[in-house]
Amino acid sequence: MDSILEKADWLVLGVYFAALIVVAIWVILQKNKDTADYFLAGRNVGWFVIGASIFASNIGSEHVVGLAGTGAESGMPMAHYELHAWIVLLLGWLFLPFYFRSNAFTMPEFLEKRFDSRSRWFLSVFSLAGYVITKVSVTIYAGGIVVSELLGIPFWYGAIGIVLFTGAYTVIGGMKAVIYTETLQTVVLIFGSVTITFLGLREVGGWDMLKETVGTEHFNMWRPMTDPDFPWTGMLFGGTIVGLWYWCTDQYIVQRTLAANNIKIGRRGAIFGAYLKILPIFIFLIPGIIAFALAKQGVLSYDKADEVFPVLVKTLLPVGLKGLVAGGLMAALMSSLASVFNSCSTIFTIDIYKKLKPNTPERLLVNIGKFATTIVVILGIIWIPIMEKIGGGTLYQYLQSVQSYIAPPIVAVFLLGILWKRVNSKAAIVTLFSGLIVATLRILAEIYKDSLSGVLLEFATINFAHMAIFMFILSVMICISISLATDPPNYAAIAGLSFGTLSDEDKRINKQSIAAIDIVLSLVLVAIVIFTLSYFVG
After folding, report:
1. If you average pLDDT over every residue of the chain, what do you get?
2. Which of 15, 277, 311, 418 is deepest in the core (most CB within 10 A)?
3. What are the structural domains of the chain?
4. What b/e sequence results for 330-358 when a residue is b if at least 16 CB atoms lie within 10 Å of its CB, and e otherwise?
């Protein structure tokens, strides 16, 4: 396999990696004194870095590879997930004040403070298993595709090399190394991807020619409710449930905002991250549609959808820029991997090890965190051959369907726990376990659907996004009914952790954290989301 990169490309790629190493070394030299330093970057990170880190954590290679592939194969429906930018605003305005008041390092720790230790244990173990099976493995698989295509090396060499490089600076530098390298990676990734979109549009003959070549259906976000893949009801409502889980309750994302030293900075970082979140429609999904158009025009060809973005790089970019975009794609892989490595080590160290051994010294906890990251790196490598087997469909759609089954019970517990003080610990743990059982049954039903009939076949084949809606309604009903049927929680013990338990001091601090510019920017973003939803109508 030959590399598509030439001498100038390798030079650009070398400069990028050198800059990344310099940033990582600079951060590493600033020693991590305690767990707040190692896991939350000393809680002293600015809004720009938080927003960039949120974006870089979200946009992994599976996003670049999978979203472009889905754009080529199915068009615009998956843009609904990218317009979840408005949900990132909910993180800043609704959830973050409660997280800050709890002074929690992790989302499982917040659940313990709001409910009890059972909920913490459930979410800790569930999150760790989920991260290795979905985020780590899918990112490595997609990264292997990108690296092997661009550098002309075998899949295994590229995937393992990137994993080891990323793992090294994550283990040594902790959250600081992750969050500051992600800022550099965000700039490189956006610049490279915008270039692809611009050159692709020029090659296809402009926006109007693109729409004419691919047809109106490819640009339609709103498919019929009966559409087997992308019903508008599922995309709008089911997608929102998954978005609430991912953006507002998942350690992977929320940890970035907790690195701020106050609610105001954390919220502003979330608002900036929300603006960046809109970009993937135009720098990944549209390029996928451009590739579909260019294939129809005979300019390029690809065997399967997940090869679309690397093929665009090969076909469209001049020497030098190929190196930069190759760096951007690797940045996407490394930033996502670094984030999940750091989140895993945080959950394991704070929610499992420290819970079992509460008197462990801070310095030892930092070392435990480094050890945990190393184990996750090894597990990620072990999982690579398994992930090679999922390449038949589009990666992004695979990821969304898995997340649609795990999100509803977690969203129900977090959302009701914050909005309604009457929710108690019994309701929380029963809701979480009920959701896990239904999700397991659904996955098993999907695997064995060929041997099912009647109601069981319906259960196995209902659209994944519609399944998320039904599971969420069920979870809410379970949570509310058990709360009302059992004793209320101790309101003094959960002071400040839900509406109805806020003190006058909590309300004063909340009011002080609100700035007019943040309100205006949030309203503008909502307007952009509404405009985009109304523009892409068939």
Report:
1. 85
2. 277
3. 7-24+45-398+509-535 (1.20.1730.10)
4. bbbbbbbbbbbbbbbbbbbbbbbbbbeee
